[in-house]
Design a protein that fits this description.
The protein is of the alpha/beta class. The protein is 36% helix and 13% strand. The strands form two sheets. A nine-stranded mixed beta sheet has the order 8-7-5-4-3-1-9-10-11. Helix 2 runs parallel beside helix 3. The C terminus is likely disordered.
Length: 328
């Protein structure tokens, strides 16, 4: 079967650099294992990938997996190039704002991107503890730069992205205050995931936490009651890291690669990978493949169901639409 002709979502990592050591990220583990050596994807390599998918119905590309994209020296050219290939493309970028904003590609990229996730997981000491290496005053300076340098129209693209854990859920009121102060359009809330194939999510979202989250339900991302048969990744999504390695989904970053786009065609990998086809066969029966046993889409389905259960039908439909593209 030609699954490749339905490929619509790409997550592409264009560099391997990051200035933080966030507790919710497994990047440090991959560095320790020698799987995160320094590299920027060249524009020629970006075009090589885009050439391979130019005839696919690609409608969304997220340019970020485990790195800080603002450290790519030509990032504005990366997103500009993607728009040239797919003029109606929805481009998503995530960034930590822990840099001198005017000296990065941030301002130059804005005309070409559609959504920018500003990663803010709390305030003051909590923020600095969860995002090890971050400085809250530096974050505030970047937000002030945005207020001073970004037009009201462009600011509509900038969404606060809050990765929620049992340690920071009580910080949400303060994060919403930042949203109001700096005139940002919304806060999107993701329950923290574990991106290691060999580990289960260790976070425990208690009854108290879930009750507290109900007031923010329409801003929470994820799919309540998600089942394995609901997974779209093996059919219409793919992740490609900075080295060209392809994996089955964005929340399994420790998986052995299914192939490499710089050594063989993405179409061949996506259609003919024995492992990926075995995953499809399992999911079609609503069963997890070996690589899906620790899947956080499944783990978070029940707590999300409990958060959303009191919403009226229209609000549930709205929440589901917002959750179509789920990220870390």
């Amino acid at each position: 079967m030609n699954f490749f002709e339905k490929l619509s979502y790409l997550a592409i990592e264009v560099n391997s650099f990051c200035n933080l050591h966030c507790l919710s990220c497994n990047r440090d583990r991959l560095v320790k294992e020698g799987k995160r050596t320094p590299k920027n994807m060249s524009l020629a390599e970006v075009r090589h990938i885009l050439d391979q998918v130019k005839d696919c119905p690609v409608d969304t590309i997220k340019f970020q997996i485990l790195s800080e994209p603002m450290f790519h020296p030509e990032f504005e050219e990366v997103v500009k190039t993607a728009k040239q290939y797919f003029p109606k493309l929805n481009i998503i970028v995530a960034t930590n704002l822990q840099y001198d904003l005017p000296k990065t590609p941030f301002l130059k990229m804005l005309p070409y991107v559609d959504i920018v996730y500003l990663s803010i997981d709390g305030v003051n000491e909590t923020y600095e503890r969860l995002r090890k290496g971050a400085n809250f005053k530096k974050l505030l300076q970047s937000l002030q730069n945005i207020s001073d340098l970004v037009s009201d129209e462009q600011r509509k693209k900038l969404h606060i992205n809050f990765t929620l854990t049992p340690e920071n859920y009580k910080e949400l009121p303060e994060v919403y205050k930042l949203k109001e102060k700096y005139k940002l359009p919304l806060v999107r809330i993701n329950l923290a995931q574990n991106w290691n194939e060999d580990e289960f999510n260790s976070h425990r979202f208690t009854d108290e936490i879930l009750r507290e989250l109900k007031q923010y339900a329409t801003d929470i991302r994820g799919v309540a009651g998600w089942e394995y048969k609901d997974c779209y990744w093996p059919y219409s999504g793919v992740t490609i890291d900075v080295y060209g390695d392809v994996r089955q989904c964005i929340i399994n970053t420790t998986q052995d690669p299914l192939g490499n786009v710089f050594k063989s065609s993405l179409k061949t990998i996506f259609n003919d990978s024995a492992e990926l086809n075995a995953i499809r066969a399992s999911l079609a029966q609503n069963k997890p493949a070996k690589s899906c046993l620790t899947c956080d889409y499944k783990f978070l389905a029940e707590p999300l169901k409990r958060v959303f259960e009191d919403l009226d039908q229209s609000s549930q439909n709205s929440a589901r639409k917002k959750a179509v593209v789920v990220s870390s």
